């Protein structure tokens, strides 16, 4: 009886794995054509000063609307794009589009804001990445100092020496570098002072529900004090409540983004429709 139920379990597991594999394969097939069919779009989420709410930046976030599948979440399709290598051409499209938009906002007379773009491991480690960034800046006329590249700890730590070398090349172009989802990866803290970065983005998991008695409070305090010592800016991610904003502000975090201020929205709506 035991052996039989075990076998059934294995069969169910296999079936589930097959279902997921074919789902991913289908997603990859659709994704391959998404860009050329204009199904991809960038939304922008404002990054604000926690004291007065002034917008100082915007994070570009990829959106995919498939005619049959509907809106597919990045949490779903970014991993597929990474596994298939599609993230490289898609990421280049994102970078170019974000620079074009940033340049357009500046030309329209808006006070300059930083545009943050998420970068995957495969893009960052690819041979042509620095050249791609250079070309996007040059072709769009977007000033490098207003472009921020978001790398996760995981990406940076995969091969720290090579990452640091590349980050220096990027910094030499004039762009800023932030560490996304900070605190969730296995960052070796001893490397942090040697990374040519400008900003730590405090992961949403530490921000969510933050209050004076939270277990997360000492973690957030530690990140903020680390940032101060290393002269890094800090952006708190996923701020949803006034209470979270207030406590982060009190702890010395200067910038934030989250639904409290605004969700990611199409470019036309960043400055109000
Ligand atoms: P991320 O870079 O950490 O982006 C922040 C995510 O938090 C976004 O999810 C954003 O919509 C969401 N968010 C913002 N404020 C709040 C809030 O107050 N509460 C909650 N619950 N969530 C909030 P999104 O847009 O679904 O993106 C998920 C992830 O997909 C991103 O996480 C990033 O890792 C990846 N991603 C998105 N666009 C790109 C892209 O163009 N390139 C690459 N490589 N990755 C991307
Ligand atoms: Mg990000
Ligand atoms: Mg993040
Ligand atoms: Mg996150």
**Sequence stretches where pLDDT stays below 50 over 5 or more residues:** none
Report the average pLDDT across residues.
93
| Structural class by sheet pairing and helices | alpha/beta
Strand content: 15-25%
Radius of gyration computed on alpha carbons: 20 Å
Number of continuous helical runs: 10
* Major sheet strand order: 1-2-4-5-6-7-8-9
The strand count comes to 10
How would you portray this structure in words?
The chain is α/β, with parallel strands linked by helices and 273 residues long. The protein is 47% helix and 20% strand. The protein contains ten helices and ten strands. Strands 1-2-4-5-6-7-8-9 form an eight-stranded mixed beta barrel, surrounded by four helices. α1 crosses α2 (74-84) and α3 packs parallel to α5. The longest helix has 33 residues, at 2-34. The radius of gyration is 20 Å and the shape is globular. It binds ligand C2E and magnesium ion (3 copies). One magnesium ion (MG) is lined by residues 180-181, 201, 237. It comes from Deinococcus petrolearius. Residues 24-273 form the EAL domain.
């Amino acid at each position: 009886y035991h052996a039989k139920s075990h076998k059934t379990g294995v069969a169910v597991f296999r079936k589930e794995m097959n279902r997921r594999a074919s789902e991913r394969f289908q997603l990859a097939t659709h994704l391959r054509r998404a860009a050329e069919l204009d199904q991809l779009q960038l939304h922008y989420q404002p990054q604000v000063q926690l004291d007065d709410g002034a917008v100082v930046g915007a994070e570009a976030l990829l959106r995919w609307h498939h005619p049959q599948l509907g809106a597919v979440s990045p949490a779903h399709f970014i991993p597929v794009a990474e596994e298939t290598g599609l993230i490289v051409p898609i990421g280049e499209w994102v970078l170019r589009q974000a620079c074009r938009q940033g340049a357009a906002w500046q030309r329209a007379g808006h006070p300059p804001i930083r545009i943050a773009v998420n970068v995957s491991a495969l893009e960052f480690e690819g041979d042509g990445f620095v050249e791609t960034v250079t070309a996007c800046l040059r072709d769009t006329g977007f000033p490098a100092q207003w472009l921020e590249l978001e790398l996760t700890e995981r990406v940076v730590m995969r091969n720290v020496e090579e990452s640091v070398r590349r980050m220096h090349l990027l910094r030499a172009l004039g762009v800023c570098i932030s560490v996304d989802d900070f605190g969730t990866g296995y960052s070796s803290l001893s490397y942090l002072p040697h990374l040519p970065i400008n900003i730590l983005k405090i992961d949403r998991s530490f921000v969510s529900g933050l209050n004076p008695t939270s277990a997360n409070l000492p973690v957030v305090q530690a990140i903020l004090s680390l940032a101060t010592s290393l002269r890094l800016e800090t952006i708190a991610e996923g701020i949803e409540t006034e209470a979270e904003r207030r406590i982060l502000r009190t702890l010395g975090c200067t910038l934030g983004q989250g639904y409290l201020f605004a969700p990611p929205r199409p470019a036309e709506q960043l400055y109000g429709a």
